[in-house]
Amino acid sequence: MDSRLTGPTRFFPRRLALGTAALSLIAASVFSQMTLADDANTTGLAVTPTEVTVGQLHSATGTMAISETGSIQAERLAIDQINASGGILGRQIKIVQEDGASDWPTFAEKARKLLVNDKVATVFGCWTSASRKAVLPVFEKENGLLYYPTFYEGLEQSKNVIYTGQEATQQILASLDWIAKTKGAKTFYLIGSDYIWPRTSMKIARKHIENVLHGTVVGEDYYPLGNTQFGSLINKVKLKKPDVVFAAVVGGSNVAFYKQLKAAGVDSTKQTLLTLSVTEDELLGIGGENMKGFYASMKYFQSLDNPNNKAFVEAFKAKYGKDSVMGDVTQAAYLGPWLWKAAVEKAGSFDVDKVVAASPGIELKTAPEGYVKIHENHHLWSKTRIGEVQADGQFKVVYESELIEPNPFPKGYQ
Amino acid sequence: MNALNKMLGGRQGVVGLLILATLILVVFPLTLDAFRLNMVGKYLTYAFVAVGLVLCWGYGGILSLGQGVFFGLGGYCMAMFLKLEASDPESTKIQSTPGIPDFMDWNQITELPWLWVPFHSFTFTVMAVIVLPVLLALIIGVALFRRRVGDVYFSIVTQAIALILTVLIIGQQGLTGGINGITDLKTLLGWDIRSDSARLLLYFINAGLLFGCILFGKFILNSKLGRLLMAMRDKEERVRFSGYDVAAFKVFVYCVAACFSAIGGAMFALQVGFMSPSFVGIVPSIEMVIFAAVGGRMSLLGAVYGSLLVNYGKTYFSESFPELWLYLMGGLFIAVVMYFPNGLAGLWESHGRKWLSGVTRKPATVIASPAPGITPTPALADKKAASPLEIQP
Amino acid sequence: MTSPTGFQMNKPVLAIEGLTVSFDGFKAVDDLNLYIDRNEVRVVIGPNGAGKTTVLDLICGKTRATGGSIQFKDRELTKMNEYDIVRAGVGRKFQTPSIYDNLSVFENLEMSFPAGRSVFGALFFKRTQAVLERVNQVAADIFLGDLLQQQAGLLSHGQKQWLEIGMLLMQDPELLMLDEPVAGMSVSERAQTADLLNRISQGRSVLVIEHDMEFVKSIAHKVTVLHQGKVLAEGSMESVQNNPKVIEVYLGH
Amino acid sequence: MEWLSEFGAIAAMQGFNGLSVFCVLLLMALGLAIIFGQMGVINMAHGEFLTIGAYTTYMLSTLVQTWCPWMQPYYFFFAIALSFVVAGAIGWVVEWVMISRLYHRPLDTLLATWGLSLVMQQAFRSIFGAREVSANPPEWLMGAVNLTDAIEIPRNGLFVMGLTVLMTGGIFLMLYRTRWGLHVRATVQNRIMSRAVGINTRKVDRMTFALGCGVAGVAGAAFTTIGSTGPTAGSLYIVDTFLVVVFGGAASLFGTIASAFAIAQTQSLSEFFMSGSMAKVLTLSIVILILLMRPQGLFASKVRK
């Protein structure tokens, strides 16, 4: 705010001049790339004989930065590894990273920028359902390709999105079956943060409990995101004495919820609790001792004992420090670049239509979670695991399902 | 002609308006690509709120920290209409209940809620965009200003209202789309609003409406009502005991500001293609105050520059230095409030004018600051300079 | 009581009866009775804290009475809004000059012109010939005819006091209430103000609070002495000055 | 019959829960009541001072865990004291650099402190990372006290309650029984006069602001036992806190206590009968409706002006 900034008339031409200069630079570089495009790229993507540009679109700032950092890191790790092993179709991957800033319209805006201005071949990004819903029309209109890592509520299937996390039925049904069988659970209390994912998940859970397990739901409660007072809820749980508390509380509320549960004397010796929303990332904040003995249902835990995962954990720690933890979404984000690589190589082209066409049936035997395969509906076949929380902030895997078919529009659960 | 000239704020006012009009209507469309232009269009929808804030905060002394409520109401009304149009039975035939918005289907709603039914009508929607927010502002305003609620109380109450509405929208997922908002809006009366040509046209409609609001704002400020507002800031008691119903004037500007915000919200839904609760809450509401503060709380045109500049800065810095963005935003807020309470317009007035050579009129030294530490603004200075010539019989 | 004859024949313009106001138990005005006639200039005096300003506050609606009534031209003021009281014909000047510093003298006066008082009235208010004439006339009355374009904040203290009186005159009130109109004025300004008051009291009643005894003498038709929220004495300046009770509480020391 | 006794036990626990929410609200609002009520300053960064307290506790907890684990059971008291000092000291500086220049512009203070809260949030993020962190409360604070077989009272709730009573009492004493309190109250009523009789009003302002921030720091330390600590944790509380103070009638400490109680009980009770989201909407709406009808808040003193 000095004297250079003397007012609108003087300032804006400067801004414009800068803007135009920047734009023409971008245009020039895009143009030069287009002239070099070959048959691996017939749609004007930012692909040169030596390089392919991809976008990364997560929240680096704002409330969601906490959750999305892991995904950013995992995607970068995968891309680095791919580059180190020779890239894709002989090209190194270059990343354009954009910040969605935990703000949905910003996500849409940045998605458009990546697709229209940067002409990226694919985008790895988004975390919340809201951000995905915001960018979805953009990807469909501009015919982009998005790899979305988070487990989510389902009820969606787009040509332009590959969902590398689990949809709700995959995560919920097997775990409910398991807890009903091993704990003999008949009564359930459903608790969630108040937004679409917990609500949809709980709806599916309720149908399954009532229609398949023939149990009863004795309570269902939603709290605003960020709520930190769970005293009343805990009293209600004490009153209803459910066999299982089934929880999908997220974000800062998570920590308050489990701390207050423990403080109220509700621990795993007295109450069985199964959560859909606690990964190793969240456990860092909650503290393993506050949740010890509770169960989480995920497709991936850091403690999975297989060679793929050992390598993944080692590489991740080598790159981001030995204290870093990897949760379910982090692993799913790591799959994105690898799945894309496989599809591009199968299609022999970066063209979105061809990559999409090649995607169903793609298998990844090197996934840290084991084996995954892309379904016709763009979701992954995956296993569901139940982890028991340990005091050190890790999970002990107590159950592993068969490979489950993704079913984003489950009949009878809607 | 003379009256019109006066309304626009004399020669200086006309020039200022022309410069802004040239920038928005000519320079931006010619130099920016469709993507960036759409972004500018989005920024300009925030400018509606900022212009309204200049009226009710800068001149009326009413700091509303809940303008997002009105922006959101306007936006949701428009989004509901567009969503209904996008949810015709044909394109929603995979749903269990075709013909209702997709998120309702996910929430096991099998019939269009009564609240949504009237939004099939475009006429109703346009009316609702204006009437609903103004009605809400009227209720809040009458309740609070009639009882002489202090400015600070008012700010906090409006903030709480923003919070309530956010929680309500998120909680009533089946009705509102919850935290995801209402997304995937496609056509307006059959016209595809996602195409580049549509966006260009919407940009100009948006800009036209914005200038309409600015002109209306200028009309208010240059009427006796405008002088009354300033008089109220000076000596509210005196105005009251000169036979004026002070509360009615406050309610009026507050409603006008609400109306502007709502128009901005509706245009936002049209240009961005969705609406979500993240524009209703406290944080966006306060950010909109920054736009007005940076531009100059006493300058209608400044508010537009403020909105453009802060949002441009936000986009630029969050792209290049995401870590720095909040420091910068916070720092900007503190600096503007503490050292440049009249924002860009104030700086322009105190430095820009002098710098602009060839300006013959004397610097506005005879005018004392409107508030402690606040330098005079173009609007004030112009009026001072213009009025003496005309009132001599 | 040696009040001038003639005034009592008419019904008083302002009739205050049994007026009481208490703040958390403290009675600032206590069962007050006060009558003001048409064309009368009444001065209220009394020591600090006697409740003088509170009485003005009560009349113009700034403070709500705990009990009693205020009748102005047969209308009960205690139930009315401030602005309705003003519109009924009561004008009030505050103790410290209360003008709009950021507006010109002209605009200050114009603000008080009794037209365009509603929201939309103000929005479409036009500066007609009638307004211009009235402003010019009042400005001349208050010795500011040459300073119309001056910004009000730059006036001298005395001129500000006049300007506020002028703003009241614009409303053409039937009852004009002035709270210490000559406070902070020079001797010559006081004389001018006394002259002004005598001129403007034609056709209206004036209620003045004042400490300056010379000034009071030069304008008052009748003086009321307030003490602890009650009328201690009332009558001509002479009779009041000679009243032993008054001497004791107010003039004596 | 068994059902009845159980219901009684739940009612008792729910009553306690209401009390515990009340204490949390009050503890948050106390600092604000001092700053807003006594000085008329709107500190939108109040939540961030709370977060400072929480982070201070977190740091101390980590240090203790690494260097002297035997301190673990006792460190919490030091943490509370340290939080008070750290938050108070930062408050002192903020008052000096920023607030003191804005006393005549209350709305601008609001905006400037909002800017400050953004800066502070980003600072937390830069220093401590974006992730939520969790201080390790001493073991004796966790778990529940069994009054009867059925009635269990969380210990951290009891602790927060005790702390709240202590802080409230302390502040009452300071404001109404000390010379400093007299100066504060005198300054609130008439700044110019206070200066004239020799009160250093600048110093009084600074100390008052610092005290308010210090109290917020203590609240932050206490909240590590019931919630988590993240860069934006403070902003979650700010609206609730302001409502408590405004609802109570700004200048009245007693009003703050009463309003915290009313809001907490409404919230706690309605949560028992409806979803948490709707309970929140209901509570806030009731508060707003009452404020619309009685804008000066529950307890406002009548003053002759």
From TrEMBL, chain A:
The keyword Protease does not apply. Residues 1-37 form the signal peptide. The keyword Glycoprotein does not apply. One of its GO terms (biological process) is amino acid transport. InterPro entries: ABC_urea-bd_UrtA, Leu_Ile_Val-bd, Peripla_BP_I. Keywords: Signal. This is Amino acid/amide ABC transporter substrate-binding protein, HAAT family. The lineage of its organism: Bacteria, Pseudomonadati, Pseudomonadota, Gammaproteobacteria, Pseudomonadales.
UniProtKB/TrEMBL annotation, chain B:
It is a multi-pass membrane protein. Pfam families: BPD_transp_2. The chain crosses the membrane at residues 12-32, 44-66, 122-145, 152-171, 200-221, 242-268, 288-312, 324-341. It is found in: Cell inner membrane. GO terms for molecular function: branched-chain amino acid transmembrane transporter activity. Its main location: membrane. One of its GO terms (cellular component) is plasma membrane. InterPro entries: ABC_transp_permease, ABC_transptr_urea_perm_UrtC, LivM-like. Keywords: Cell membrane, Membrane, Transmembrane, Transmembrane helix. This is Amino acid/amide ABC transporter membrane protein 2, HAAT family. It comes from Pseudomonas graminis.
From TrEMBL, chain C:
Keywords: ATP-binding, Nucleotide-binding, Transport. PROSITE patterns: ABC_TRANSPORTER_2 (PS50893). Residues 14-253 form the ABC transporter domain. One of its GO terms (molecular function) is ATP binding. It comes from the Bacteria. Pfam families: ABC_tran, BCA_ABC_TP_C. GO terms for cellular component: plasma membrane. InterPro entries: ABC_AA/LPS_Transport, ABC_transporter-like_ATP-bd, ABC_transptr_urea_ATP-bd_UrtD, BCA_ABC_TP_C, P-loop_NTPase. This is Urea ABC transporter ATP-binding protein UrtD. It comes from Pseudomonas graminis. The gene is urtD.
Automatic annotation (TrEMBL), chain D:
Pfam families: BPD_transp_2. Keywords: Amino-acid transport, Cell membrane, Membrane, Transmembrane, Transmembrane helix, Transport. It is a multi-pass membrane protein. GO terms for molecular function: transmembrane transporter activity. GO terms for cellular component: plasma membrane. It is found in: Cell inner membrane. InterPro entries: ABC_transp_permease (IPR001851), ABC_UrtB_bac (IPR017779), BCAA_transport_permease (IPR052157). The chain crosses the membrane at residues 15-37, 74-97, 157-176, 209-230, 242-263, 272-293. GO terms for biological process: amino acid transport. CDD domains: TM_PBP1_LivH_like. The keyword Ribonucleoprotein does not apply. Belongs to the binding-protein-dependent transport system permease family. LivHM subfamily. NCBIfam families: urea_trans_UrtB. This is Amino acid/amide ABC transporter membrane protein 1, HAAT family. It comes from Pseudomonas graminis.
